[in-house]
Each structure stands twice: as structure tokens, then as C-alpha cells.
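Hi C.,

You asked whether I'd gotten around to modeling the 188-residue construct. I have! Everything is below, sequence then structure, no commentary in between.
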Amino acid sequence: MTETQVWNHFSKISDKLIAILESKTRDYSAYDELSETFTSYSEYLFPEFTGDENGKYILIITCDGNRKGIPFAEKLVEAAPVFDKWSIQKYRQPGGISQLNFNGLEYPENDIRIKYDKVDGLYDIDIFIKDYDKDDNRYESLAFLYLDHFIGEYNVMTKINTVGFGKLKSSAEKISLRQLHDLINNQE
């Protein structure tokens, strides 16, 4: 599948996607179609969408943290035409989110602390989460979403080497997500 085919298909179903966003339908088949279209283009890409405060809709092209998807996301976004109702966004961007939910699990950003080492220009980080349950993979998935939304998906893929997890027992000698954001975004 080519970039043009992806965007032609998106154009055909974009009103159905808007209906999903506006809760006018419980029929998610348009999203499923778009997901299949992305997978046909590249197994590493996934669509996400949301609205913004200006009444425009945002299609986020994410590789869900898989570095192999970067060239495909880059190429697809570069080929995107202009849409009246939609903005096309490459990767999950950092923003002001203080609490996320993943498959019913919620914990606030303040329940996360990070310890890091910088090795050869990349960060090895350990994420410590209050009430962390190593047998429940939702804790780690939600922590990765926090990373994407605090430092940006692209930065996670290109500036973080390894990620470990543990239960938060003390905040001593650990930094917050906001501090990690500042550290990585101020990196030379």
C-alpha cells in the first residue's frame, strides 16, 4: 500500500471517525478499517485520534514506541495532504497530562519516580511506580504512555536506551516525569 492510498482511504472515512469522536456512534468499524489500512502500509504504525480546543480533529500517527516505525511515520506524514477538519501529527507529543488510564488502570503522574544513568548519549531509566504489580502488565504500559505524553514518543524512541520497572518505596534520589522532560529536552 502506498502513502497516497492510505490518505485516500482516510479521506473516505474521516467523517465516520469524527462521528466516533463526537460520540454520535458506537460503530467503531471505521477505526478498525483505518487501523487495517495503517497495518497494510506498515506493521509498525497505528492511528490514534482526538480533538483539540479549536474544534479541529487530530490524527496521531504513532509507532507505539517501536523505533522500526520511524521511517514509515516520517514518510507517511510528509505525504499527507491538507484536510479541512484534521491536523496530522507525527508521534505522541508531550503535553500537560496529569492522569492517564490504560485498560481501567489509573494512577497519577505523582505516583511515578525515575532513576537514570546516561550512557553514550542515551538514558537508561528505571521507573518506580507506587503500588506497582509486576504481574499486571498494565502498570508498565501506562508508564510508557506517561513517557510518551511527558517527553514525547520520538524522544522516548531516540533518547532512551533501556527501561526497567520497580515498586516505589522512596522518592529519594529519583526525579519526576516533569524533571525527566526538562532533562531530556535540554540535552545537547
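If it helps when you're writing up: The chain has a mean pLDDT of 91.

Thanks,
B.
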